[in-house]
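Thread: quick sanity check before group meeting

JM: Hey all, I'm pulling together slides for Thursday and realized we never actually wrote out the predicted structure for the chain we discussed last week. Dropping the sequence here so it's in one place. If anyone has concerns about the input, flag it before I start.
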Amino acid sequence: MDRRYESCRALLDTFSNAVFRSKVLFSDECAVYRSARDRNMVFWSKENPNFTQELEHNPQHVMIWAGMTSHYLTGPYFSDGPVNAASYSAMLETWLIPQLRDRGLLEDVWLQHDGAHFALSVRNVLN
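JM (edit): ok, ran it. Output follows.
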């Protein structure tokens, strides 16, 4: 909690006014499965610790990505496979960067995304 607080405080200090804060593009993605029963799940119960149920591993799904600033909503972007360095880099190059360029935001936006997208190839695209 202390590290989270310190990180939030540093971000607020960095973006000390509303004009700067409006330039942060917050983003995330989510998997949507064809059936709620087809997810990777683990069941556990005090009453029956030996209970097991086999579920499909890596079921068919669609990944949905979206981003938002205080002024814009970007997305959704749909992908029919897992999000990895190659697919994320491709999404940035072929979809997000052109979207930001069309809105005049390309040179003046801070992309906030989770640590899963830290591959060197992704950082090269963002740089």
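AS: nice. DSSP finds four helices and four strands in the chain. Residues 85-102 form the longest helix (18 residues).
JM: adding both to the slides.
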